Amino acid sequence: DTVEQRLILLAIAEARETGQGITENSLLEVHASSYINTFNVEKHTAYTVLRDASRSLFDRYVTYHDINPKTGKDRSFHCRWVDKIGYEHQSGVVFLRFTQDIVPLITRLEENFTKYEIQQVSKLTSTYAIRLYELLIQWRSSGQTPVFNLSTFRQQLGVEATQYKTMSNFKTYVLDFALKQVNELTDITANYQQHKTGRTISGFSFTFKQKQERKKVKPKKASLTEKQLDLFANKLAYDSAFSSQFSEAGESYENFAKRIKQLLKDPVNLDKYSDYLDNLDLKV
After folding, report:
1. Counting C-beta atoms within 10 Å of the first and last residue's C-beta, which end of the chain has fewer, N or C?
2. Initiator Rep protein WH1 domain: which residues (predicted)?
3. Does 1-106 carry CATH code 1.10.10.10?
């Protein structure tokens, strides 16, 4: 589920950027406001999907393999992503704690995944594309991955053993589809090489490079008079389209307007809210 993946990634990024880190005892928080700003959804949508994801994520599990040190044989384990998850309805906050077995598996992802990377996956609609991007950026510094064994790679992308069993279906509906989204909608361009054992494809490796950044257009420096600030802030506070995106739970119109007034003193925010101002026929 895409929302569940987004929830996990936001939790990881928040833990990293706040310095909290992730241990088996960490109770992490994901706020609806963070989900709204990152994935550009409306307030009521964020509250609904986070509530639903907080219920469904508890039942999700991951499968991983290791080698039995006593026998040297491969063994397969299933473990839940979280052992505790809750939702605070009034404020739209999800609280979650990763399981003991999951924490070591996401440590490397925590080191590499920031809110910048989450912005890159925010437009991806395929869960396979999100997981492919997560996997690739762990080798961002070199732009080249090792060879992923086919069975391991399928698990890393979240493909069940009964799904897309033929190579043609796997490429068409998983790998090529995911790669197309990554190349079109994120900050990297990637290609894969297939590796064979005899005549059978047994693994894949990837090379990728960073796209050139487009030059950012600097927002026009503009300032509002005190009278304009009061007028614009009051109009925006009562505008349903604007308030659904930017108001906070339980915030009164008066307090919301005061907060907007302070935000409008920054030219960057004037540019950010320009579409809403235009819709209200408010000219800077």
Report:
1. N
2. 2-136
3. yes
